[in-house]
Amino acid sequence: MSDKIKVGDYLIIQRQKYTKLQKFNNLNTTVNLGKDLIELRLAENHPYFTTFHLVPKQERGKRVYTLDALSTPSEIRNLKELLIKESGNDNRNIIDDRQSQALSTEEILKLREECESSSEVIGKLVENSKSFATKTEYSQEKYLKRKEKKYFEYITIRRPSIRLLADIYWRLDPEKVLGVRFDTLSQIISYSGVCSVGNFLLYESGTNGLLPATMLNSIGAGTGGKLVHLHPGNVAQKQALLAMDYPAEQQARCVSVNIYSVLRHFYQEKAQLKESEKPLETIPATEETVGLEKMEEMNGTTKRKHDETENGKTDGEPEVKQLKLEKDKQSWELENETAAGIMGEKFDSLVIVAKEHPYSILKALLPFVKPSRPVVIFSTCREILTECYVDMKSEAAITYLRVTSNWMRQYQILPNRTHPDVTMSGSGGYLLTGYTIG
Predict the structure, then answer these.
(1) pLDDT at 171 over 50
(2) Based on the domain organization, do 212 and 102 belong to the same domain?
(3) What is the rounded CA–CA span in Å between residue 352 and residue 115?
(4) Which of 4, 96, 173, 277 is the most buried (most CB within 10 A)?
């Protein structure tokens, strides 16, 4: 993992409090921040956490910027110290008639083109404001922050982290991470006991790779821990995993496979050991295979074509053709074999984060968890977890069952004033936790 920005990396572009995930594909890569288009090529080979000044390019009709690295972030000027000279006692005599700014829209746009820095633009706006000097100091600070946000000319490029990725996905759309807020994500990791030793089982149906990336981060590099990441689709979502840029050795210990494909592979191998070379159709149905079929039916998932031909031959095929198929296995077949091998060893914890009802998934995966190991199920719907709670209580397969919910509130802390954020998320979802019984 390099300490310098290079082509191929995922970058976190930060402009004040706003952050955006961007892949640095090539030297022609650009990033859109609002109406501004920023070229990233000059960021190459600079250290992460470098602050860059946005230098405007002369392109008609477009706000295009290149980057100029600052030697130190202290070069950014403090607008409060520069522009607040006097303040009023209160705002009772200020009338918002939209006539306080003497500059027209056209004049402001021209200023933006002519001035070398955002500080100069904001300074001109303050000079031509009829009401700025009569506002309270607090109102003046709010005005400057609002204008600074609009005209701010610096960005910082940061390395992706689990916290930053979780915040970005949540801000864009909570459904991108199935409603898993960062505080709930930390609770999932805490309850599941993910660490550097052991095998861990995860089922998630679409979090942009945030859940497997977080669990792999907790396992760490150069350890013996392994993660089997189950998903319902043909291809796993891995953006967060790729963005974290884990070492190759660490990435190799996360095996992502289709849940139905790997379970069928596991039970076919198990049945073949018992029934020798009998075709799969003649193998008596077991409780596990019936449970798998029921789970597929409940989740509306059909068998994939490559699963239907997973044996590699049918009656009457030449043995030579079978040997050729075995030598030319596809990547998903190799991943299935690897995952099935780990499943035979059993797991030290189970985490389920699903769009669909988790009970059938829980029933299918519970046999692979060792006794006295944690089970964690997340859902945005309390009633779904309550149903699972009642069913698991009656079956006595999991003990110490608890349904919990996090309530997180952020506070704005400023000199002489502290208050909760006006806008905040209402719920971070619910967790059903417990321990398996041997």
Answers:
(1) yes
(2) no
(3) 54
(4) 4
